[in-house]
Amino acid sequence: LNLGRTILKLGEWDIPIFDPERTVIDSFRYLSIETAVKSLKRLSAQRGIDFRKLSEYAKALRVNITPYLIAVSA
């Protein structure tokens, strides 16, 4: 549960959230493929993708995203 977890500080509150790469991996785990691919495309368009973190998370959580990474990066 700590994989990709960060703390967002809002005033006096510390809110635990997952980083964008972990959120994309979770979308592949829990949502439809269409929704997951959209989230991957949006991450690559808005912020750029940290492929190292994305592949680490995918391997640790046993998610095969290789075909989708190839499609998005092409």
Summarize the structure in words.
- This protein is α+β, with helices and mostly antiparallel strands.
- The chain contains four helices and two strands, in the order ββαααα.
- Strand 1 and strand 2 form a beta hairpin.
- It is globular and about 40 Å long.
- The N and C termini lie far apart (32 Å).
- The mean pLDDT is 89.
What is the string of SSEs from the N terminus onward? EEHHHH
- Largest sheet features: 2 strands, antiparallel
Helix content: 55-70%
Overall pLDDT metric: 89
Question: Radius of gyration, Cα only, in angstroms?
Answer: 13 Å
Overall shape: globular
Count the DSSP helices: 4
Q: How many E-type strands? A: 2
Strand ordering within the main sheet: 1-2
Query: For the terminal residues, how far apart are their CA atoms?
Result: 32 Å
Which parts are unreliable, with pLDDT below 50 for 5 consecutive residues or more? none
Question: Approximately what portion of the residues adopt beta-strand conformation?
Answer: 15-25%
Structural class: alpha+beta
